[in-house]
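Try this one yourself first.
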């Protein structure tokens, strides 16, 4: 099985060895780049002797500092797994003093790799899907060989476009519904040929669907959304490669938050303003909302939502709210007095509309 050397594992290895020998330890890839170290300033730098050790496949000791690029006095040894060199470990210090830790460092590395291999091997299929999908979305460090092996097994091509589906269960649904809903969602994924999906506790399902399959089977998803309108919401992210599925997940999350009242389905491809607003940092959002909506009551906000949904038409707003025209005008004027923005003037209305969208 392929060794799973992630940055997290490599850092665990160097920290463990450092605790034993009390010296700085570097984990160096076969190109000579330090990708884990007990000295954080050296991560990402070039280690000349590390590269030479990888090329020769033998231990190299350095007795002088700064004689080689990015190299200090110490011992550098290649690490093999399944008869294949996977990295170089460098231990800083007088070679005569740190040499005894070299073999120990190699053993620790092999033991930790083996432990990770067994952990990966023993994962259930469901656990593997959850681990990989969440890892891709959260930009976690997944060993490329392990990732490719499983993607191939699930028929997830790295050359095709994929979209992320988010199915959000309404929080007021009780546990009695969970088993039947889980079965229904599993059948939906089968119909859509979703091989990579997972449940995120406590109330969300994530699934990857091929772009072409989505457009071909879109009606199945729409019918499912309609059938479970009071139970869940569905959002579809923009197309991306499987390695960039985090982008699709983000756009799906924005689509989920942007679903209008009375609906439970949205596609990120239909969004425009929402995606722009999502890029604004929380501090600026907070400042803008305090400036525009902070002094308004929930009733004021609801009237504004209806007013804007009616394209700022007083007549339509009156029909929607069952209020007299004079009452609506009065309440809009009161909003103007409270916040300083007139919802009946275009420029001010735009500001209030954007604030509501945030």
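Now uncover the answer:
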């Amino acid at each position: 099985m392929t060794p799973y050397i992630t940055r997290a594992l490599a850092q665990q290895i160097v920290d463990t060895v450092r605790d034993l020998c009390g010296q700085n330890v570097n984990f160096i890839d076969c190109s000579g780049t330090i990708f884990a170290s007990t000295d954080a300033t050296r991560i990402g730098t070039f280690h000349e002797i590390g590269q030479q050790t990888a090329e020769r496949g033998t231990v190299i000791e350095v007795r002088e500092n700064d004689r080689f690029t990015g190299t200090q006095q110490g011992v550098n040894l290649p690490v093999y797994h399944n008869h294949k060199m996977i990295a170089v470990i460098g231990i800083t210090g007088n070679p005569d003093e740190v040499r005894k830790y070299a073999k120990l460092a190699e053993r620790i590395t092999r033991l930790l790799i083996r432990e990770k291999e067994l952990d990966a091997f023993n994962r259930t299929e469901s656990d593997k899907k959850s681990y990989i999908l969440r890892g891709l979305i959260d930009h976690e460090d997944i060993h490329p060989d392990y990732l490719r092996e499983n993607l191939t097994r699930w028929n997830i091509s790295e050359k095709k476009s994929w979209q992320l589906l988010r199915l959000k269960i309404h929080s007021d649904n009780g546990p009695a519904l969970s088993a039947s809903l889980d079965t229904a969602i599993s059948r939906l994924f089968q119909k859509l040929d979703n091989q990579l999906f997972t449940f995120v506790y406590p109330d969300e399902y994530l699934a990857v669907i091929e772009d072409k399959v989505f457009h071909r089977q879109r009606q199945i998803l729409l019918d499912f959304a309609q059938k479970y309108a009071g139970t869940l919401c569905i959002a579809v992210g923009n197309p991306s490669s499987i390695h960039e599925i985090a982008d699709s997940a983000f756009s799906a999350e924005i689509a989920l938050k942007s679903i209008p009242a009375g609906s439970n389905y949205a596609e990120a491809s239909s969004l425009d303003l929402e995606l722009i607003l999502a890029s604004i940092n929380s501090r600026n959002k907070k400042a803008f909302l305090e400036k525009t909506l902070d002094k308004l009551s929930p009733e004021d906000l609801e009237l504004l939502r209806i007013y804007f949904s009616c394209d700022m038409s007083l007549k339509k707003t009156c029909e929607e709210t069952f209020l007299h025209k004079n009452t609506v005008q009065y309440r809009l004027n009161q909003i103007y007095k409270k916040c300083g923005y007139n919802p009946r003037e275009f420029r001010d209305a735009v500001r209030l509309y954007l604030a509501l969208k945030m």
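Discussion: The radius of gyration is 29 Å. The chain is about 50% helix and 15% strand.
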